[in-house]
């Protein structure tokens, strides 16, 4: 069964450093997403991406964050100048379409980011 | 703004018993849907089941079923014949506008 893959599974970085989290969405999907889950809290939407541009973003997704689809398969989340509070699990997800009607969003296994 | 409410505290359920998890969706939309995802301790988000507001039947997927009450805009997840592997967090959320906003989740612990 096709799946969303994420790398790295876990990354430890020093405060102030830049981090790039990588994702390979399901190949025939057109919509891509990043979510964040701080330990013990709910999953929070960060950004959605379609047709090579951001289609929607949350208030969390400020200038510190950026996304890119550098080629036909990868989808990346860049976090500049990391802060302690950026420590979280980051989920990449993809879906065939962006509307409702049961277009399931499939999640990757997540990338744990620990900022020290 | 859309809001998903999952209010139950952590729940313990005996193995082989059924458990019901509540989810209500505060929305003015008449056409909507609700997804349920399972998050075990390993952290991944696993899609379980989906209910659309215009679906005539309650959604069913193996041991998972939804008790959909359209007037209340709720889609409660029923897990029948609980297994130890069902111990996890369960998140409910709607699609819409290219994003999925989850509730706070329900913690389920299945005890032998």
Description:
The complex is a heterodimer of chains A (116) and B (112). Chain A is built from no helices and eleven strands. The radius of gyration of chain A is 13 Å and the shape is globular. In chain A, β7 (65-68) and β8 (75-79) form a beta hairpin. Helix content of chain A is 0%, strand content 48%. The model of chain A has no long low-confidence stretch (mean pLDDT 91). In chain A, the strands form two sheets. In chain A, strands 2, 4, 5, 6, 9, 10 and 11 form a seven-stranded mixed sheet that branches. A four-stranded antiparallel sheet of chain A has the order 1-3-8-7, with no helix packed on it. Chain A is mostly beta strands and 116 residues long. Chain A has strands spanning 5-7, 10-13, 19-24, 31-37, 44-50, 53-57, 65-68, 75-79, 88-95, 106-107, 111-115. Chain B has strands at 3-5, 11-14, 19-21, 24-26, 33-39, 46-52, 60-61, 64-69, 74-79, 88-93, 106-111. A five-stranded mixed sheet of chain B has the order 2-11-10-5-6, with no helix packed on it. The A-B interface holds A 31, 33, 35, 41-45, 48, 50, 55-56, 58, 89, 91, 93, 98-110, 112 and B 31-33, 35, 37, 39, 42-47, 50, 52, 91, 94-105.
Tertiary shape of chain A: globular
Encode the helix/strand succession of chain A as letters: EEEEEEEEEEE
Low-confidence sequence ranges of chain B: none
Distance between the termini of chain B: 41 Å
Radius of gyration of chain A: 13 Å
The tally of helices of chain B reads: 0
Mean pLDDT of chain B: 87
- The separation of the N and C termini of chain A measures 36 Å
How many runs of DSSP E, i.e. beta strands of chain B?
Answer: 11
How much β-strand is present in the residues of chain A? Answer: over 45%
- Which range best describes the helical content of chain B: under 10%, 10-25%, 25-40%, 40-55%, 55-70% or over 70%? under 10%
E-strand count of chain A:
11
| Main sheet: strands, sense, barrel of chain B | 5 strands, mixed
Query: What structural category arises from helix and sheet content of chain B?
Result: mainly beta
Report strand % of chain B.
over 45%
Radius of gyration of chain B: 13 Å
Order of secondary-structure elements of chain B: EEEEEEEEEEE
> What kind of assembly state do the chains in view correspond to?
heterodimer
Content-based structural category of chain A: mainly beta
Please tally the helical runs of chain A, counting DSSP H or I stretches of 4 or more residues: 0
Helix content, binned percent of chain A: under 10%
């Amino acid at each position: 069964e096709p799946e969303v893959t994420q790398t790295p599974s876990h990354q430890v970085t020093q405060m102030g450093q830049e981090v790039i989290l990588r994702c390979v969405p399901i190949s025939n999907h057109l919509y891509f997403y990043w979510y964040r889950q701080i330990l013990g809290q709910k999953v929070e939407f960060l950004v959605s991406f379609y047709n090579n541009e951001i289609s929607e973003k949350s208030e969390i997704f400020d200038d510190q964050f950026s996304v890119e689809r550098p080629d036909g398969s990868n989808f990346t989340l860049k976090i500049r100048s990391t802060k302690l509070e950026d420590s979280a699990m980051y989920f990449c997800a993809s879906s065939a379409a962006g509307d409702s009607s049961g277009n399931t969003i499939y999640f990757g296994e997540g990338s744990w980011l620990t900022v020290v | 703004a859309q809001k998903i409410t999952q209010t139950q505290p952590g729940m313990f359920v005996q193995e082989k018993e059924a458990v019901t998890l509540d989810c209500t969706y505060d929305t003015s939309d008449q056409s909507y849907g609700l997804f349920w995802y399972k998050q075990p301790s390993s952290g991944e988000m696993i899609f379980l089941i989906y209910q659309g507001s215009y679906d005539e039947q309650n959604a069913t997927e193996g041991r998972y079923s939804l008790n959909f009450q359209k007037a209340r805009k709720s889609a409660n997840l029923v897990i029948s014949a609980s297994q130890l592997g069902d111990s996890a967090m369960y998140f409910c959320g709607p699609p819409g506008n290219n994003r999925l906003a989850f509730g706070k989740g329900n913690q389920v612990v299945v005890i032998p």
